[in-house]
Every structure is written in structure tokens, then in C-alpha cells.
Design brief:
The complex is a heterodimer of chains A (403) and B (420). Chain A is of the alpha+beta class and 403 residues long. Helices cover 44% and strands 14% of the residues of chain A. Chain A has 16 helices and 14 strands. Chain B is an all-beta fold. The model of chain B is unreliable at 265-278 (pLDDT under 50). The chains are: A alpha+beta (403), B mainly beta (420).
């Protein structure tokens, strides 16, 4: 493998802008006003907007000090201008009132060849679900998911990965880990939810970049990429976050094990020259050891009532207040227990009614398409679903218990 | 609908439990502005706050959840009892039935009830048997998503400034707020204006029929000669957000059922339904009707229309909020030409459908209504005797029976209803 010589980092941190009068979206014109004001004051920070979201981009950072400085300055500037406009920045992963996902994308660079990037894409696949679990910050109000954003594949903006042949493969835009070559020469992690605080953004972003850099220093993959295992682990990560059970190389494991035994050491090795301070990954370690993520903290806030409107408003009140509430909660919360492995059967049957088109099933389920095809064939053999052709020769599926 | 408020006073009752005096400022998740009857009203709520978040303080914003909102509304606005219509009577009542600060129009005969919200574009929020839940909950509080509220309403496709869903209707010629009329049909007209277009929504209810006539008359009301093309549609939003998504089905006259499937999440920028239109069309062209059913209770609704006017019934069964639209042909509304769109609706307890026809029933105070759709000249076959039916609308027929026989067949088809 070709080692990444100059490690660089970039982010696209998507943030909701909520009105302090209502607790909901302040609207595009307000976001544009904030973006224009920030661009005027600090154009180098590349603050923009995207689909009713504010987006902090910061450009490329070549070392940790530059990265940290840019993230902190950008967020502080946006917060200051938001306060002047009587709105608040509320970063988390999914606003259920209007089904708007917000991501915390990270670009790891800089790549020098397609072969290098394609190999890193494949080698990073087994680790992606653990990072999804760690970065989960969009619990559903029904308490069934920790990353509702990834469960819905972020509205097709973070879709399951598939195999990529370095010799002949064609990358696909929008994968959880997405090849951005040659236009950007980066490998972009799109599956992270937008994090509520700058410290979390910095740790999770550098963790991912370090992982990619660390993998590039190896001669062969650390864990064998398997698209079916990855698919199931991705589903489990979106449902249970850090309490998920995974299956990697045929054996049961957890996101905690993957992060502490593989991801962290690889990241520390990969960030050797990047300049991260000692004990930089304090929050990541603490979350991994206690098997929690920001989603668990948000669930604590909503546990007395599950209502998307109340949640949106409550997070508008809570998140901008202080980062210390999260860190204090992390210090004092009890470690959570690992949950049972979720079989994809449950979600597959839930996605099918009568005459459900194949396209709908593909779009609904957070699983690779080949995986879905395989499961559909199994369910047809078991007699739980049946397949037929529609009027326009489209494939339709019926659940036999609903017939 | 949810109430949004500002915290005025905070009182800690015990650890994590607070009493908050709040001032209502806004409403969220609805298509209307906050009513003057609710704005700036003070109420007290009690809530648990977790220790992992800051304690509430004066000036904080707060949004009441569904239960808190209902409780608050009933504290502020006194709930009013609905009038009861007996056999041969029609009750007509304009009052704030759900305490949202806006009056609703309540109509009923001895069998069915309807509720309209004039403030919400003439939205029908209830149409069912008097004692049944039906397909629609009456409360506006349920089913909000991207400010779309559950109900039946006139909508329009790509018509510039013509936005029927945003209209505020006024009721014309309602002599008294509360009326019981005896023996005769009642026609209520609601009027609103959208750009150059005046809209009259007319409701006709008969004391002796389970069928409601809903008609829309769209006319150009400006003085200058100016014609306008519009594409109106009647929209059915029946499934509140979060409800079991296998709960509602829509039926074509052939008997084909489309179940509103588990909601997938589309990215917000693809919420225009047209991009998936290849699979949305319902085949009802010649027959002029479609039907809905709640799969858990069997309750249904049949909608009949002129197939020459309503040319494209269409179901979006895989949206976040699945719905059906009955698209009418393009109308040109000018100084001398108006557009007329008429629908006949009837709630049903149960029905069978197929072969281009529907045979359904609805329990009444003193018997049962049998309703047929899609048949040219239907006869009910009961104990080998033919029973002719009364026609109402383009293709809806009904007949009242004193008792429900063990089996009713529909002439010329294999459709039959049996007593359980």
C-alpha cells in the first residue's frame, strides 16, 4: 500500500439553524444572512449553506493546530452572528419535524492514485460501522434507533458501500466512505452524524483521518472486508449505536472492541506527524469504554416524552447552552450493556406490504443492494413474501401474511 | 399542532421536576397562524427535566407535546358539546370544536358526521359514521408533518398564485350558529379568494342519505378579462405521521388494493411527487370512483366523481405521508367561464369491491344504508327479490333497509355482502 505522505483533513459540518422564538428551522433567508455575514468576516473559513442547513467547511487543514483553530473560529463566528439574528446553532443528526438529516462529513487526504484510494476504501469497510456507532447523534423519538439518519441512509446521501475493484472499479457518489478522486483526492466519511460540540467534531474527524492514514501504512488489510458483514453491522450500528453487536470475520464483536483494539492504535500511528496533542482522544475513549455516543445523551434528554416537536425545541434550548453538560454526563453515566444482534429480517419484512416496488425496498433499507437481493430470495423461498410483475414490468413484492 | 411558548416563571417542585408558568406565543406543525384566543395566554405546565441538561429558566422557549397541547387548549377554550341530529334532521354548527381558536363547521344527520376547518383551506377533518373513528381523526392535533395536516382538501398543481390549501373560508348565509333543520337537504357554502380566483366550496347533506356532495366552483373574480389555467385536485391525507403504515389501503374498481407501505424517507428536495409518478396512477377512469379502507377495522370511504372531469386519480403510497390525489382536467377560468368540480363521498362500515363495482354498507339509526358505486343500473338481490336503488351523483346509489339480511348480492356481479 502506498502510504499517505501529507495527511490533510477537511470537514463539512452541517448544522441546523433554529429560531429562538419557535425552536424550529429559522428558514433559508436567515441562514443565508448568517452565511453572508460569515463569508464577509472570514472568507477563508468557507462557511456555506446546504438544504436548510448551515455548513462549516474550513477548507483543507494540514496539521491539527490549523484544524482546531479553524473549527473553533468558524463555530464561534457563526454562533455570534446567529445570536445577533435571534437564532441558535443546533448541531445533531436528524430533525424529525421535517425529516432533514445533518451530517458531519470528514475528508481524509491527500491521495495520490486511484489504486491507493480504492484499496483504502475496501480496507476501511470493516471499521465503518464502528465509526457510525461512535458518531451516532440522531436517536429516533420512538427509541428504536440511535442513528435515524443512517437508518434512512441520510436521504440517499450516505448509502451502503459495496466492493470496489482497484483495477477496474467505478466509485459511486454518496457511499458511507466515499471516493472523491481525482476532483478532491480524498476519501470522505459521510456516515457520521453532525456532532453537537466542537470537541466531538475534532476528535471524531481526526480519528477517521488517522484510521485512513494508519491503514495506508500497512501492507495488507487489518480486517477482511466483507460487504455482507459490513451491511449487517451497519444496520446494527444505526439501531443500537455503541451498544450494538457486530460480526466481523465470522466472530461476534462490539464497536468498543473495534475502536479500542484497532481504530485508536491505527489512528495514533497514522497521525504521527499531524501534531495531535497527547491524550487527544479522551472523549472517544470514554465513549468507547462506556458504550455510549451522543445519541445516548440526547435520548436522556427526550426520555420523558417522545415527540419530535418537543425534542427539536428542547435541543434548541440545550445544545447551544454549554458543552460541559455532555462531558459531565459522560463522566457520570453508567456503562451501557451490549444489545442483542439484530437480524435484518425484521427490517426487511417491515419494509414490505402489498405491491411494494423493489425500488422502494432498496431505498428504505440501510443495507447494500446485493444483500437486499439475497435476503429477498431467502424470504421468497421461506414463503414469507412473494414476487410478481406490475403493469409496467416493475418488480413488486407482497407480504404473504397481508394477502 | 403544537403550542410554542416562552417560560415566564420557574418553580422547582422536587429534584428534576418543575412547574413552569408559560406564555403561549406560537403554534407549530399546522397550516394556520396562532389564534388571538390563544396568543399570550398564560398557563402552567409541569415537567421532568433530566440532570444531563440545563434546568429551565425564564425566557427559555418551550414546545408542548401533543398531550400537553390538548390539555392546555382545553384549559383556555371551553370545549363545546356537539348537537345531536335525530332521524330526518340535520345539525349544522359553527364553533371551535377542537379548541384551536378557530371555528369548525360541524354537519351531521342521523348517520354521518362531517367536520370542516374553514381556517385551513376548507379541510375536511372528519367524515364517518357518528360513532365510528373512521379514516380521519377529527382532532387537528394528529398527523402533522411538514405542516401538512390530515384531511381532505382542494389542492392545485402548478397554478402560480392559486393556492387553495392556504385559503381562509367564510361561511355564507348561515342564519344561526347552531341549527337543526328537519326534512330538507341542507346546502352550506364556504367562500374564499386566491389571487384572481374565487372558490366556493359547497356541501350538500341530506337527512335521508349517507352521501355527502362536495362541490367546488372556481371563478375569475377580477374585473379585467383575464383567463387562468388551473389544475385542481382533491387530496386525501389520511395517515398521520407515525401511524402504522399498513393501516390504510386504497382500492381501484377492479379490486386492486394499494397498501400505504412503511414510510421511506426521501430527501427533502425530492418531495415533489411527480418524480415517482410512473407507479402512482389508479385505474378508475370509466368507473368514476375509488375507495379507501382501514385495514384494522374495515371502515371505509367511497368517493365518486365524473370520470370526464377527474381524469387522473393517483396514489402516492410510498411517501412520508401517503396520500391520494384526484387530479381534474385542466380548467380555463375566465370572466365568463367557471370551473365546476363535484365529488360524492360516503363513509362505509364495510365493503366488497371488484369487477368495476363496489358494494358497501353503513349502519344507521334505524337500519342500514347499502351503497353501490360503479354500476349503471344496480339492483340489490335480497332473498331472490330485486331491490332498486336511489341514485345520487354520477355513479353512487344507495338504499335504506330496516334490517340487515343474511346476504345481499349485487346484480350482474359476483359481489355479495354477508351478515357476520
Amino acid at each position: 500500500m502506498q502510504k499517505i505522505k501529507n495527511v490533510t483533513i477537511g470537514i463539512d459540518w452541517e448544522i441546523y439553524v433554529n429560531s429562538l422564538k419557535t425552536g424550529f428551522s429559522a428558514g433559508k433567508s436567515t441562514i443565508k444572512r448568517i452565511v453572508d455575514a460569515c463569508s464577509y468576516e472570514a472568507p477563508e473559513l468557507e462557511i456555506g449553506e446546504d438544504q436548510d442547513l448551515l455548513e462549516i467547511r474550513i477548507g483543507i487543514a494540514k496539521n491539527f493546530s490549523e484544524f482546531h483553530d479553524k473549527v473553533e473560529r468558524a463555530f464561534e463566528l457563526c454562533s455570534k452572528i446567529a445570536r445577533k439574528n435571534n437564532v441558535a446553532l443546533v448541531p445533531y443528526g436528524y430533525r424529525e419535524t421535517d425529516h432533514n438529516p445533518a451530517g458531519g462529513h470528514v475528508h481524509a487526504g491527500s491521495m495520490e492514485s486511484f489504486t491507493q484510494i480504492a484499496k483504502l476504501y475496501s480496507w476501511s469497510m470493516p471499521f465503518a460501522p464502528a465509526l457510525i456507532a461512535l458518531a451516532s447523534a440522531s436517536p429516533g423519538v420512538d427509541f428504536k434507533t440511535k442513528s435515524l439518519r443512517i437508518f434512512h441512509s441520510a436521504g440517499r446521501c450516505s448509502t451502503p458501500m459495496s466492493e470496489l475493484n482497484p483495477r477496474i472499479g467505478l466509485p459511486h457518489w454518496g457511499d458511507d466512505i466515499c471516493v472523491k478522486y481525482p476532483d478532491k483526492a480524498t476519501l470522505e466519511f459521510r456516515a457520521a452524524d453532525s456532532q453537537p460540540f466542537t470537541h466531538l467534531v475534532e476528535e471524531i474527524s481526526t480519528l477517521y483521518v488517522g484510521l485512513i492514514s494508519g491503514l495506508s501504512r500497512r501492507k495488507k488489510p487489518i480486517l477482511k472486508p466483507d460487504v455482507f458483514e459490513y451491511g449487517m453491522n451497519r444496520l446494527n450500528a444505526s439501531l443500537e449505536g455503541m451498544q450494538a453487536t457486530f460480526c466481523i470475520e465470522g466472530r461476534e464483536t462490539t464497536p468498543t472492541e473495534i475502536i479500542l483494539e484497532y481504530v485508536l492504535p491505527l489512528a495514533l500511528d497514522g497521525l504521527n506527524e499531524f501534531g495531535v496533542p497527547g491524550n487527544h482522544f479522551g472523549l472517544v475513549e470514554a465513549m468507547a469504554k462506556k458504550r455510549v455516543s451522543p445519541a445516548d445523551w440526547i435520548q436522556e434528554i427526550i426520555k420523558y416524552n417522545s415527540d419530535p416537536w418537543r425534542l427539536s425545541c428542547e435541543l434548541t434550548r440545550v445544545i447551544p447552552s454549554s458543552q460541559t453538560f455532555f462531558t459531565e454526563w459522560l463522566k457520570t453515566c453508567k456503562p451501557k450493556k451490549t444489545k442483542q444482534y439484530h437480524n435484518p429480517d425484521e427490517v426487511l419484512l417491515d419494509a414490505i406490504a402489498l405491491g411494494t416496488p423493489l425500488l422502494n425496498i432498496y431505498m428504505t433499507l440501510p443495507l447494500p443492494l446485493a444483500f437486499i437481493d439475497k435476503m429477498l430470495q431467502e424470504k421468497i423461498r421461506e414463503g414469507k413474501i412473494s414476487k410478481r410483475l406490475g403493469d409496467k414490468n416493475e418488480q413488486l413484492f407482497d407480504r404473504t401474511d397481508l394477502l | 399542532m403544537r403550542l410554542s411558548a416562552i417560560v415566564n416563571k420557574v418553580k422547582k417542585i422536587e429534584k428534576g421536576f418543575f412547574a413552569l408558568d408559560i406564555i403561549i406565543k406560537n403554534i407549530a406543525g399546522d397550516v394556520v397562524e396562532i389564534s388571538k384566543k390563544l396568543k399570550n395566554k398564560n398557563i402552567r405546565i409541569e415537567r421532568l427535566f433530566p440532570k444531563c441538561a440545563p434546568e429551565p429558566k425564564r425566557g427559555d422557549i418551550i414546545t408542548l407535546d401533543e398531550k400537553e397541547t390538548r390539555t392546555a387548549l382545553e384549559k383556555i377554550i371551553r370545549k363545546i358539546e356537539k348537537p345531536i341530529a335525530r332521524e330526518g334532521e340535520i345539525a349544522c354548527f359553527l364553533a371551535d370544536i377542537n379548541c384551536d381558536g378557530y371555528p369548525e363547521l360541524f354537519l351531521s344527520n342521523d348517520t354521518i358526521e362531517l367536520v370542516f376547518s374553514p381556517a385551513r383551506g376548507g379541510l375536511i377533518t372528519r367524515l364517518s359514521h357518528k360513532t365510528a373513528e373512521g379514516l380521519l381523526g377529527e382532532e387537528i392535533l394528529c398527523g402533522v408533518e411538514k405542516n401538512i395536516v390530515c384531511g381532505i382538501s382542494l389542492t392545485s398543481k402548478d397554478s402560480g398564485d392559486f393556492s387553495p390549501e392556504k385559503l381562509k373560508y367564510r361561511i355564507l348565509r348561515l342564519k344561526e350558529n347552531k341549527a337543526i333543520s328537519r326534512g330538507k337537504k341542507l346546502t352550506i357554502t364556504m367562500r374564499a379568494k386566491s389571487g384572481d380566483i374565487g372558490v366556493d366550496e359547497r356541501i350538500i347533506i341530506d337527512p335521508q342519505s349517507p352521501i355527502v356532495v362536495l362541490s367546488f366552483i372556481l371563478k375569475n373574480i377580477v374585473k379585467k378579462q383575464k383567463s387562468k389555467k388551473i389544475n385542481p385536485a382533491l387530496k386525501f391525507n389520511l395517515l398521520p405521521l407515525g401511524e402504522n403504515n399498513h393501516k390504510i389501503s386504497v382500492y381501484e374498481p377492479s379490486g386492486k388494493e394499494t397498501v400505504f407501505a412503511r414510510l421511506p424517507e426521501f430527501p427533502p428536495w425530492l418531495w415533489s411527487e411527480d418524480w415517482i409518478s410512473y407507479q402512482g396512477d389508479l385505474k378508475s377512469a370509466k368507473n368514476g370512483f375509488i375507495a379507501f379502507r382501514r385495514r384494522d377495522t374495515g371502515e371505509g370511504l367511497v368517493v365518486s366523481f365524473d370520470p370526464k372531469t377527474v381524469i387522473r386519480p393517483w396514489a402516492n403510497s410510498i411517501a412520508i405521508m401517503p396520500h391520494v390525489r384526484l387530479f381534474a382536467k385542466e380548467f380555463i377560468v375566465s370572466k365568463s367561464r367557471s370551473a365546476n368540480l363535484e365529488f360524492h363521498l360516503a363513509p362505509l362500515d364495510n365493503f366488497v369491491i371488484g369487477e368495476g363495482c363496489l358494494l358497501g354498507k353503513l349502519k344507521s339509526e334505524n337500519g342500514y344504508y347499502i351503497i353501490v358505486a360503479g354500476h349503471k343500473d344496480p339492483k340489490l338481490i335480497i332473498d331472490k327479490t330485486d331491490v332498486k336503488m336511489k341514485k345520487q351523483g354520477y355513479g353512487l346509489f344507495y338504499e335504506k333497509l330496516e334490517y340487515l339480511p343474511s346476504g345481499i348480492n349485487l346484480s350482474g356481479t359476483s359481489l355479495a355482502l354477508y351478515k357476520k
